[in-house]
Amino acid sequence: MMELGDWCRKRKWGIMVMLSVLHIVGIFIFIRGFLLTRTELPYYSRCSDVSESPCFTSQSNHYQNQSNPLCWTRPAIDRLIIIVLDALRFDFVAPSTFFKETKPWMDKLQVLQKLASTQGTYARIFKAIADPPTTSLQRLKGLTTGGLPTFIDVGNSFGAPAILEDNLIHQLASNGKQVVMMGDDTVDLHTVDNGCIEHLLPSLYEEDWDVLIAHFLGVDHAGHINGIDSISMVEKLEQYNAILEKVIEKLHSQSGPGGLHENTFLLVMGDHGQTINGDHGGGSAEEVETSIFAMSFKKPPSSIPSEFDTSYCETDLDQKKTCISSIQQLDFAVTVSALLGVPFPFGSIGRVSPELYALGAGTWNLESANVGHWPNQKEEEWMRNYCNVLCINSWQVKRYIDIYSASSVIGFSSEDLLNISNIYAQAEGNSTCSSDNKSLHEDESYNSSLPTLKRKIDTYFNFLLSVAELARSKWTEFNLEMMGIGFGIMLISLSIHFYAIRTAKNAAGIPLPLCADSQISVKLMFAVFIVVIHACSLLSNSYILEEGKVANFLLATTAMFKLHYSIKREKMLMEAIFFLLLITILRFAIEIGLSKQAATSLFMSTHASWMVDIDPDNPMWIYMAEIIPILALILLAYLLYITVTSSSCCGIWKYVISGTILCYILIAVHWASESDTLSSITRLQGIGRNCIPKIIYAVGLGQLLLLAFSHLFHKDRALDSKKHFVSKTVAMLSTCSSTIIILSGKQGSLIALASIAGGYCIMRLGNIEQDINDKVAGILTFDPLSVTQWSLLATCLFFSTGHWCAFDGLRYGAAFIGFDEFILVRQALLLTIDTFGFSHIIPVFGLPFLVADQQLLGQTDQDRRLIIMQLYLMYLMYGLTIVATVVATIICVTIQRRHLMVWGLFAPKFVFDVVGLILADILICLAWLYFVGRGKDGGSGSMPDRHD
After folding, report:
1. CA-to-CA distance for 535 and 889, rounded, in angstroms?
2. Burial class of 705 by CB neighbour count within 10 A (0 to 12, 13 to 18, 19+)
3. Nearest CA to 730 among 670, 796, 782, 653?
4. Which ranges constitute the DSSP H helices of 615-690?
């Protein structure tokens, strides 16, 4: 049996560690290709920063704002109106003649088309290209920061209710601009829009603002509810057209010399597009293509130089020529900043758009130029002005890239930085944007300097476009090769799981044929079927949202399967019925947990009739809510007391379990002290608010250290008998339970009871086929379905505690139980314990209970080795169910990487699953060390043949 002993002591530990390493490597590689990350920097641009740039020389001082000579650009407009029409498709604004086929939703915003065709020199339609993801939050963030938001913006934005990195709104407020904002609140099809209409038109007569922003949501809602090919969409667009007509009419009436809107600039724009079904979030052309209509009420003196005009023209329905240009949404923040004369947002990597910038009358800088009759003078003066703006633009982007790479953990490679530096050095070459003032009156000088200016501007273009391309490759483009490698490694780990399970059953020399018996074969196939169904359900966003109910349904299905065997065998009928009753209770707990997710929960709407009859202020319900958790805690303490007083519980285990009973008493005191109802009885209000939790954490840590030292220095005999084995398992579970319960709140004791009851039923029902008179048959009743049930129960407990797979599903308050100050590692550890306590920690360390009823436990040395093998198989199969879920999630996020809900649903689910897998791997390795050990002479592998 030396070969078996070597397998039991060494190879199993090696396989567990190898699987854990494979999972970590595979997940890490996949994440590098999928979860695009960007570190937010806590820096803000200031007017004085521009003095550090190489853009201002003695010849270019005229370019600066005389009232604020240190600010970046001279304001080109006085007032700005931004009307955001959420989910504004490009074909909502552009004339239908630009498209091959006319659709019902086209040509509804005729006022914009008319202005763009008749007044093209100072009104223009742009096709605005957004960077995915095209969710509203990410796009609005991109529009205001000038950056490329990703799924994980590491830094200030995590969990923040607002954009905290440098942005356009911050710069406006910091530089004396008065901003008025209206709209932008999701309610229904008309409420927000009506509120915007009510305030927008009167505001046009007010003088107390410099920038007015109105955010309409009706088009987005109409698309989500009915699709774009609907009557409600057409009606909403026609409503917008009427509103815009009134807005433009009022602006025109006040745009004369000395008027309130003499130099006002109007932008009507979308944040993203939408598909035919009204969806958005992905990267299809329909989703990323939106529109910007720009109009200056102070007519520019000339058209943009032809070198920078990228427009393409068609005749509209009135046979008038309409020209449309293109712009990247990445360029929006920096272009608006340049028009308003405020510093560019620190993290902006966009380029000042020449066509949008040229619509501002003040960008032509004619008051400082010696204007004559030469046709090229206006053109060159504008180009010189624009060149200086690009100089500042390029300097700002280079500054950001340098600081980002020096500050960020995930920066750019040295090769990329060197390439960017070389391009920037070329742009900042010998030539400058300034000219010799002596030559300003010579037409020939203008003609000779235009090519030089154009080359200078081209070098800035090259630099800015190179940076944007590099940033997109790092922050918005999925690396399918790395995703494929990571997925392949996860498939390899699955193969190793199957191989290890198959090999383990033959390693003992006594066959453990999982499929030899027809009943075992049916159970195995049914267990595999349940795992596959659960994994496949994760390919649907609806099933991910309802995963708790899916797991509960599958668990109930397996319970009915067990009930069938119980009736057939005429044994354990009470356990089967009680298990079904427990699953039903968990179903309601999951519904209540989902009700915390949103006020419009299906549970709240479906069961509102009987919930209305429950008066939350009724003293009976108040007392029950306070007393029942404490009674459950008392019951848990009593169960531990029974274990302590048993003859098999002795030595270190007895002290550890007794420590948990003490912790339960302290938890009850803590809850009573925080209760308004019980505080008048116990007079404990305010006592031990932070002290008791800290004591419980300290006791739990001490218990873990005692168990670890006991395992290292004392060869216990946990597998010698059932009672010793149970005592050792209870000792570890009780050690973990006190911290998990207090972090979970008053629901913790109830969930703990549910986990004990569910585990007991699964353990008992897993041994229906076991024959007490047949020793060999006893070990052959390994039930893979029990492991599947254990995994599904863990999932149900996760959702029963009010968690869900989203960052707002984390109970952040749990991280501060016992503490007022924030320390990242400590609070992260507490939050992890609260999140995964009942779904991972308790199930992994409680899994050995499934072999606690084996008749062969502790009878001979060979029997103990077989028990170790069965425990090993159970841990492998439990890990396999988790890996199968993660692989399904990886397939899902790969397929749905451009889906509307990828960042709001699929990616958070992926994060929770992979964190859970890594945590489960670590816990399984620790549990194996605790119950079995890995050394040649350690653990239970070399125990003498003795009995209690």
Report:
1. 8
2. exposed
3. 653
4. 619-645, 651-674, 679-682
Strand pairing category for 289-296 and 312-315: unpaired
Q: Summarize the confidence of residues 146-167 as an average pLDDT.
A: 68
Rounded Cα distance, 503 and 514, in Å: 12
Dihedrals phi, psi of 300, to nearest 5 degrees = -65, 150
pLDDT at 919: 96
Three-state DSSP class for residue 893: helix
| pLDDT of 153 strictly over 70 | no
Question: CA torsion, points 624, 628, 630, 636, in degrees to nearest 10?
Answer: 180
Q: Tell me the pairing of strands 289-296 and 264-269.
A: antiparallel
Its pTM surpasses 0.85? no
| Identity at 587, one-letter amino acid code | R
What's the per-residue H, E or C state across 41-97? Answer: CCCCCCHHHHHHCCCCCHHHHHHCCCCCCCCCCCCCCCEEEEEEECCCEHHHHCCHH
Distance, CA of 422 to CA of 437 (rounded, Å): 31
Sort residue 381 into left (φ over 0), alpha (ψ -120 to 50) or beta.
alpha
Which of left, alpha, beta for 811 (phi over 0: left; psi -120 to 50: alpha)?
A: beta
Q: How far is CA 42 from the centre of its chain?
A: 21
Burial class (CB in 10 A: 0-12, 13-18, 19+), 82: buried
Encoded tokens for 615: 């008066």
Q: Which residues, 6+ apart, have CB-to-CB distance to 870 below 8 Å?
A: 512, 779, 782, 851, 854
- The reported pLDDT for the residue numbered 514 is 44
Sign of the alpha-carbon torsion through 489, 491, 492, 498:
positive
What's the half-sphere exposure (Cβ side, CA atoms, 13 Å) at 486?
26
Backbone dihedral angles phi then psi of residue 314, each to the nearest 5 degrees: -145, 160
Which pair of structure tokens corresponds to residue 291?
Answer: 């529109």
DSSP state at residue 269:
E
Most confident of the ranges 368-382, 417-431, 881-895: 881-895
What is residue 409's DSSP assignment? S
Q: What is the pLDDT of residues 573-625, one digit of tens each?
A: 999 999 999 999 999 888 887 665 543 334 334 443 334 444 555 667 777 87
Give CA–CA dist 833/820, Å, rounded. 18
Q: What's the pLDDT band for 58 if we cut at 50, 70, 90?
A: very low
The token duo for 53 is 């740039």
Rg of the chain in Å (alpha carbons): 35
**Which tens digits make up the pLDDT trace of 862-907?**
767 777 888 888 899 999 999 999 999 999 999 888 776 777 778 8
Residue among 677, 586, 583 at smallest CA distance from 623: 677
What letters, b where the CB count within 10 A reaches 16 and e where it falls short, cover 744-773? bbbbbbbbbbbbbebbbbbbbbbbbbbeee
Do 222 and 229 meet the contact criterion of CB atoms below 8 Å apart? no
Q: Say if residues 248 and 110 touch (Cβ distance below 8 Å).
A: no
**How is residue 120 annotated by DSSP?**
T
Contact 882, 506 (CB under 8 A): no
Better-scored residue on pLDDT, 319 or 918? 918
CA distance linking residue 828 with residue 845, whole number of Å: 22
